[in-house]
Every structure is written in C-alpha cells, then in structure tokens.
Amino acid sequence: MSGISQDWEPVVIRKKAPTAAARKDEKAVNAARRAGAEIETVRKSNAGTNKAASSSSTLNTRKLDEETENLAHEKVPSELKKAIMQARLDKKLTQAQLAQVCFTRLVVQT
C-alpha cells in the first residue's frame, strides 16, 4: 500500500478563455468599457452581407447610366401569338404537348 499517495496541491478551475466572437459581443465590449480598457471598434463595410462585388458594381452602374443606346428586346406581335394558339387548338394539343413536339420545355410567360 505504499504506492498510494494523496495529492494535496491546490487545483484552480477556470472558465475557458473567451473566443474571438465572444470578445466582440456587445456585452463584452460594454464590460471592457466599464473596466476602463481602451476599445477600438471597426465595422467592415459589407460585413455579414453577400455583397462581394459591390465595389465594382458602382463602376458598372456609372457605365450603364452613361449608356444612351436603347437595348430593348423586340416584342412578338400579338397576331403571331394568336396564330400559334389557334394552330395548337386546331390540332387539339395542350401547351405541354406542343412543347414536347417542339422538343422544348413548357415555359409559361406572363
């Protein structure tokens, strides 16, 4: 029994050190202010957003504003729309069947 001994050294149990996210918490910042610590807070311009290309978008916006050319798609005349619809109805096809015959997907345009 001589191999058994007791350890009488004091053991100090502490909480984990705060993580970086916890140090940036508003409560932690306020506690540091009350303690008199120097604090520098900087907010990143696009932090927490999905605007990675926002700096280049301002350049593109300026270019688009300076553009004077009319870039509109040509519109399909309503006579063509009605002719396609009438031909489809004459053959007793649904829109889905017509799309399948034309080897395309059915896309409803409003």
Automatic annotation (TrEMBL):
Pfam families membership: MBF1
Biased composition (Polar residues): 44-61
GO CC terms of this entry: nucleus
InterPro entries associated with the record: Lambda_DNA-bd_dom_sf (IPR010982), MBF1_N (IPR013729)
Protein name per the record: Multi -bridging factor 1b-like
Molecular-function GO term, any one: DNA binding
Keyword DNA-binding assigned: yes
Keywords of the record: DNA-binding
Ranges where the Multiprotein bridging factor 1 N-terminal domain occurs: 6-76
Disordered: region residues: 40-70
Nucleotide-binding listed as a keyword: no
